[in-house]
Amino acid sequence: MHAVRFRELLESSGPFVSVYYEESVGLGNGAGAIQLDHRWQGLRERLERLGADKSMTDAIKRAVLRWNRPAIRRGGRAVVVGPEGVLFNEVLLRPTDSTVVRVSELPYIVPILAHGLENPNYLLAMVDATGADISAYLGGELHSESVDGALGRVAARLTKLLDETLAGTTFVAGTTEARANLMAALPTSVCGQVVSLPICAPRGEYDFDELKWAAEAWFLDRQLSAVDDAVVRFDAEAGRRSGRAVQGLGAVCSALRQGTIDTLIVGDIGDAVVVADEGMTTVAPRGDDRELGSGRVMRADEALPLFAISAGASLVRTDERIAPTDGIAAVLRHTPSS
User: Fold this and answer.
1) Which Pfam families did the record assign (predicted)?
2) CA-to-CA distance for 92 and 209, rounded, in angstroms?
3) Residues near 156 by beta carbon (within 8 Å), at least 6 away in sequence
């Protein structure tokens, strides 16, 4: 994921509350409401044990209980809150293995790297010759509207929504002819943000779950491709012994201090810690931090992604395709100085 996805974290001060949990489909009925309330009570108890500030706990509560965005099959939820309010409130393509609740000096975003969307705002449009039904997933909320009439009107509305909402992708489904005509009517400037889904049905006769699952498959494919690309680049640079592939806490912290990281590859870091200076301008593994004085000791899986974001690096959460030393690696922009 690009650093710009998380830039607002750099403008926020701690502490932060980071919550991740599984969200099942069908929470709109009575049983679902009971399940949602039960989940919140469990989260609240954990937040209280961890000493979360009441205002932040209340913000988490509002985010959890007022969520009206349908889950994508067996998906997950990500809610990250700072003193100023909710920073992230979005769907995950897959849930974390277990519920995660952290109250810490820095935000924890690794599950978003693993299962989040590159841009959590997107549009779904079901089109035929009579117009389109449009669903917009924006900032954790679902907004729906219909546009009746010629597909030129639909194209104009989608273009305006893309411009106003900063949605990253528009998925278009419907009859083959309608999809082709809509693509022809869209400005060239937005065509690169439109994905045509092979779901052929007129408005009112489609399965909305099928549409969401097709979008999920596309996002998941993009996610896997990003991991593939990072692993291939890392292996290639390591094979060439170019010095642009580094792994382990020491080497990665050194590259972060020099600002040379292009892509941070996050694996299983575990409970490792690093030490940063008070201004969060430099970082080192514990034991190599003599120049930092007392420093600030913090979890590596929280600190290293934030340092990478501040340097403008991309970030990926890898899987079994690579198991870097200490659970952390990077591809560098250029060979680091000694």
Assistant:
1) baeRF_family2
2) 16
3) none
Q: Are 93 and 39 in contact (CB under 8 A)?
A: no
CATH number of 3-112: 3.30.960
What pLDDT digit, counting tens, does each position of 41-87 carry? 999 999 999 999 999 999 999 988 876 555 445 688 999 999 999 99
Architecture (CATH level 2) of domain 224-332: 2-Layer Sandwich (3.30)
* Rounded-to-integer distance, Cα 183 and Cα 171, Å: 11
Q: What six digits make up the tokens of 195?
A: 């994905």
Can you tell me which residue has the tokens 């692993």?
231
Q: Which fold is adopted by the domain 122-206?
A: Nucleotidyltransferase; domain 5 (3.30.420)
Task: Report d(CA 170, CA 159) in Å as an integer.
Answer: 10
Of 275, 253, 256, 277, nearest to 325 (Cα)? 253
Say if residues 103 and 49 touch (Cβ distance below 8 Å): no
